[in-house]
Design brief:
By secondary structure, this protein is mainly α. Helices cover 75% and strands 0% of the residues.
Length: 170
């Protein structure tokens, strides 16, 4: 059973580490990039399944999406280590990490099937759709956490009118 996360998403020390690490903006760039590639690839996969055309492009787009997934998973683990002191399954992101493992397993299964060529292209794309469905759910989990972090940040930030010059940050 996972340990309980502290009230809010981050302790003050974790928030400071999160804000200071280069891995936070790296995640901030990779996450929307991966989502954009996901949307383009999803469109290609659905088009290919519907028409039977551009199968190689659709299959290849899933490979590109998967490589980006690996990159964001590796950098995300480093980010989690810096912020929470462990590479995976920190209490604040336990269930997101569990779902990420399923997403990673499905994408990796796709790469294995794609590289061996044992399945028909339509079957490979169906596996890609399963991986994409899991990815979409995982993305929603992370968007929820992003919203929670922003709400926690707003709650911890004193109103501008009550800030003194010493307490203000540039």
């Amino acid at each position: 059973m996972a340990a309980t996360a502290p009230p809010g998403l981050y302790t003050p020390a974790q928030r400071a580490r999160r804000d200071a690490t280069v891995w936070t903006p790296v995640q901030g760039v990779l996450a929307p990039l991966q989502f954009g590639v996901f949307l383009v690839s999803l469109g290609m996969v659905l088009y290919s399944l519907r028409t039977g055309q551009a199968l190689d492009w659709a299959l290849g787009s899933v490979v590109v999406k998967t490589l980006l997934l690996y990159l964001i998973m590796i950098t995300g683990c480093i980010w989690e280590k810096v912020v929470f002191g462990q590479y995976l399954f920190a209490p604040a992101f336990f269930w997101e990490d569990v779902m990420s493992m399923l997403v990673l397993a499905l994408h990796t299964a796709y790469l294995a099937v794609w590289s061996q060529g044992g399945w028909q292209p339509e079957e490979q794309l169906a596996l890609a759709l399963a991986a994409y469905a899991a990815y979409a759910l995982n993305a929603l989990q992370y968007l929820r956490k992003l919203r929670m972090a922003r709400m926690q940040g707003s709650a911890n930030t004193p109103p501008l009118a009550s800030m003194t010059t010493e307490g203000a940050t540039p």
